[in-house]
Design goal:
889 residues, alpha+beta, nine-stranded mixed beta sheet, 37 strands, binds adenosine-5'-triphosphate, binds magnesium ion
């Protein structure tokens, strides 16, 4: 079976078991503060398990793009060295949300593996949770009995809490799991050692392929477990490992999932994969063919490489790949970007989002590669300097912090540093490196640390009803709340059953406002206040979390009853003007710049709108003006908002609606239309009732964010007017300062001319002064047998002039020793010059001398043996310093 057929068979199998098949969520996790990237199939369904929403079906199956390079699951360092861990991989999964449980999950898994895929039964092992007394969770008897009926006792392994008990996080749903392992060794190997003894022992051919999680408990913040009201199934099967098993290979990289890329690498490098002659070339091909998937799909789903957070993770994966190519495959020029088209062709039916953005993704990677290849060279130079210095000192180990700096700043993983070091006969302090790394990890953990209590549930509610498209205030109940300690203080997170507050999403900031308490209930605040101030609204998965920094709310929240939830309408109106303007602008950009313009990021609040988009050159002033004109024309047309809710996604896309890659859309979407022939977008944000409300639109900046991505910022309405007024005020002030000239521009130009003429004059005069100074210095010079001595306090404009003076005198007088003192800007300065030949003959050292003299002016300095300078803080010591100098020669 080809990998395509294997994937399809999985989906078909579960469709036949009445599962709804859904598309993979984007690789980049949105609205989940605990995750950067989706790292398992269940991530997109988290809310259903938490009870914050209803799934479209109680049975779902899919293939999910996963990335395990940060946080709880981090397999990065293993990738390429082993043959079955990837950064990005596909996880095939089937789910039951309060529907079927262990019996069906186990039977179907077995049926699929042995009857559809025809994996040999005697090569499969399963594990069952053994129980944990201290946690109060029993042995999973139910799973044991079910498996016993299928595979018999001798193929079941008992597993401990680490391998066989799954938890969503420190708190939340959890339960025992059963894993299925496959033994892919040769018959001879099997005859010698039983597969059972190798399960969970990191054997590359005895690997876990499928994990079936049975969610039946909930973990509370105090560590206790309570049974869940409804039980769920969450399974995850590694697609690439499954292909290895079915295609009877011993490495994921030998399957057709990776072979296309590896063949291209063979052609580009002229090396053969798997020949065993150059183990590091093999590792490099594995690393690269793996990493291109992670990088290309992350960019596709909206995560561009950058210097921070998720963007930095992607940049590091990219660099790891480029570096392996550079060191072991001889790629001195960009090559990584060339692999995008291979992936695009291979996945066009599964993940068409990559194919749609192929050119953009390749371009971003190319630019990243170019810039890293420059760092790589400077990193290698840095490593050179380090090794030479160490050698001269007779040290043979590169200290851990240097190794860390190389990895952190230049993207050099330890293994590369170690390898280069070895070539130079040096070792690296790996333990020291690990310490530095652990230290950094600790720092970033502390930065992220947020401490939250359990949710305190006040009412039952099935999800939240968002009414903010139609209402600015609602009567609501508080469903639950919790207290969260952040770096800046304590905050309350409040969830309502219905709310007009828009939660930050799709670039639009969250609403602010108040929850007004009823005066007559016990909830009235001790401080007499009648409302809870909401400073922000954020989405956490599908929950709308209203954030308040008010103090001591527990009692009030618990007794609040019905509250009036009311947004700050004035602020919201400004926000929606910016949002609608963003839509009008995107259409105008497509008209003016071309249809390749795609949204790469957007942020808008009540002051400004910021928009990142794919475009490869600077947007010129004329183009900006054209876009601005077009948007303002549409504002003046006062087009009424045409909002359509619950449109089936396919219908919307077929009608030509603009969607943003990397956004996760449901089956039903909302359309925002300002004239169907002009602006037609999928959008969940809030908008003006008609474009006239935007008032006016004005760009304030245009620039580059990263390769292939530009950013514009603009303002609308009052803010635009404010901007114009501010600029007017600045102009008025300048006019006033220049005594109201008739032509302002000319006045400023002549001011600048005057200034540059004056500067020239100053330079000329200073030079002249130094020349006459020189003449008098030469006249006062003391002539000795072997040297000519000038020790003098001089008046010069800058410390640089001392150097100029000394150097010019050197060209004029042989065997010169010159010591100058000067007061510059109230601070004492000293310089010592000794002719090179004197330095060589006598060993005198200007650096040492200036240090000694500097004691008199309470300062320090240094330089070379023939010229050195010092600065100090006590100008009254200059005479003493010069007297001391005279005594020295
Ligand atoms: P392992 O112990 O092999 O790392 P895991 O316990 O981390 O696996 P799960 O979290 O249970 O795995 O994920 C479910 C399935 O996803 C696994 O059975 C495996 O087939 C696959 N899988 C997990 N991590 C990776 C990875 N880094 N690359 C490829 N497949 C993976
Ligand atoms: Mg793992």
């Amino acid at each position: 079976m080809t990998s395509h057929q294997i994937r399809q068979a999985f989906l078909d199998f579960f469709r036949s078991k009445e599962h709804l098949i859904v598309h993979s969520a984007p690789l980049v996790a949105k609205n989940d503060p605990t995750l950067m990237f989706n790292n398992s199939g269940m991530a997109q369904f988290k809310d259903y398990f938490l009870g914050n929403g209803t799934p479209p079906s109680r049975r779902i199956a899919d293939t999910q793009k996963c990335l395990r390079v940060s946080g709880k699951h981090n397999d990065l360092e293993d990738v390429g060295f082993d043959t079955y861990h990837h950064t990005m991989f596909e996880m095939l999964g089937n789910w039951s949300f309060g529907d079927y449980f262990k019996k069906e999950a186990i039977a179907w898994a077995w049926e699929l593996l042995t009857e559809v895929y025809k994996l040999p039964k005697d090569r499969l092992y399963v594990s069952v949770f053994e129980g944990n007394a201290s946690d109060g969770v029993p042995f999973d008897q139910e799973a044991w009995d079910l498996w016993k009926g299928i595979v018999g006792e001798d193929r079941i392994i008992l597993g401990n809490k680490k391998d066989n008990f799954w938890e969503m996080g420190d708190t939340g749903p959890c339960g025992p799991c059963s894993e299925i392992h496959v033994d892919l060794r040769t018959p001879a190997e099997v005859a010698e050692v039983s597969g059972k003894s190798l399960v969970n022992n990191d054997h590359p051919q005895v690997v876990e392929i499928w994990n079936l999680v049975f969610m039946q408990f909930e973990r509370k913040a105090d560590g206790s477990l309570i049974p869940l009201p409804a039980t769920h199934v969450d399974t995850g099967m590694g697609f690439e490992r499954l292909c290895m098993a079915i295609q009877q290979k011993t490495s994921n990289y030998d399957t057709d999932v990776f072979q296309n890329t590896i063949q291209v690498l063979e052609t580009l490098s002229g090396k053969k994969y798997g020949s065993g002659e150059e183990p590091f070339a093999d590792i490099a091909m594995r690393v690269i063919s793996d990493h291109i998937r992670a990088v290309a799909f992350a960019i596709t789903d909206g995560q561009l490489p950058s210097n921070v957070k998720a963007g930095y993770v992607i940049r590091r994966i990219l660099r790891r790949a480029v570096r392996y190519g550079y060191s072991y495959l001889g790629f001195q020029e960009p090559f990584f970007y060339k692999l995008v088209s291979v992936l695009s062709a291979q996945f066009k039916d599964v993940f068409p989002e990559l194919t749609a953005q192929e050119e953009f993704v390749a371009k971003v990677i190319l630019e990243e590669e170019k810039s890293f290849l420059r760092t790589l060279e400077s990193g290698l130079k840095r490593l050179d300097t380090i090794t030479t210095t160490l050698k001269t000192k007779g040290i043979n180990t590169i200290p851990g912090d240097e190794v860390f700096e190389l990895s952190d700043t230049f993207g050099f993983p330890v293994d590369l540093t170690a390898l280069i070091a070895r070539e130079k006969g040096l070792l690296v302090d790996e333990a020291g490196f690990q310490d530095a790394l652990a230290e950094q990890k600790k720092r970033s953990r502390q930065d992220a640390a947020k401490e939250a209590t359990d949710w305190i549930e006040l009412r039952e509610a099935d999800g939240v009803e968002f009414l903010g498209y139609d209402f600015e205030e609602t009567h609501s109940h508080i469903v639950k709340y919790r207290k969260v300690k952040t770096k800046t203080g304590e905050e309350y997170h409040i969830v309502l059953d219905r709310t007009p507050f828009y939660a930050e999403m799709g670039g639009q900031v969250g609403d602010t406002g108040v929850l007004v308490l009823k005066g007559d209930d016990k909830g009235e605040r001790e401080d007499g206040g009648r409302s809870i101030v909401i400073v922000d609204t954020k989405k956490e998965n599908d929950l709308f979390v209203h954030i308040s920094r008010d103090k001591n709310l527990d009692n009030i929240l618990q007794n609040a009853g019905i509250v009036t939830a009311k947004i700050d309408l004035n602020r919201r109106e400004k926000i929606q003007a910016n949002h609608s303007a963003t839509h009008l602008m995107l259409s105008a950009m497509r008209e003016v710049l071309g249809t390749h313009i795609g949204q790469k990021g957007s942020y808008l609040n009540d002051e400004v709108l910021r928009f990142d988009f794919s475009h490869f050159t600077k947007v010129t002033d004329e183009e900006l003006a054209k876009i601005e004109d077009r948007v303002n024309e549409k504002i003046r047309d006062n087009i009424a908002l045409d909002e359509r809710r619950n449109v089936p996604i396919q219908q919307a896309l077929d009608a030509g609606a603009t969607a943003t890659f990397g956004e996760k859309y449901g089956d039903f979407v909302r359309l925002i239309i300002f004239d169907p022939t002009y602006s037609f977008e999928l959008c969940g944000g809030t908008h003006v009732p008609s474009t006239g409300k935007i008032g006016v639109f004005k760009f304030i900046s245009e620039g580059s964010v990263s390769a292939g991505v530009r950013r514009v910022e603009a303002v609308t309405g009052e803010k635009a007017l404010e901007l114009l007024r501010d600029q007017e005020a600045v102009l008025a002030k300048i006019k006033e300062l220049l005594k109201s000239p008739t032509d302002l521009v000319k006045a400023v130009e002549s001011l600048l001319d005057e200034r540059s003429n004056l500067q020239k004059k100053i330079i000329f005069l200073e030079n002249e002064k130094i020349q006459s100074l020189k003449t008098s210095l030469v006249a006062n010079m003391e002539k000795h047998k072997t040297f000519n001595l000038i020790v003098e306090k001089v008046q010069v404009p800058s410390a640089d002039s001392l150097k100029q003076l000394s150097y010019e005198l050197r060209d004029q007088i042989e065997n010169l020793i010159a010591v100058f003192g000067a007061e510059i800007g109230g601070k004492p300065q000293l310089s010592v010059f000794i002719a090179e030949n004197i330095v060589q003959e006598t060993g005198l050292n200007a650096g040492k001398i200036v240090k000694e003299l500097a004691q008199e002016i309470r300062g320090g300095g240094g330089g070379q043996p023939f010229f050195a300078t010092a600065g100090g803080s006590d100008a009254s010591g200059l005479d003493n310093a010069l007297a001391k100098a005279k005594g020295l020669f």
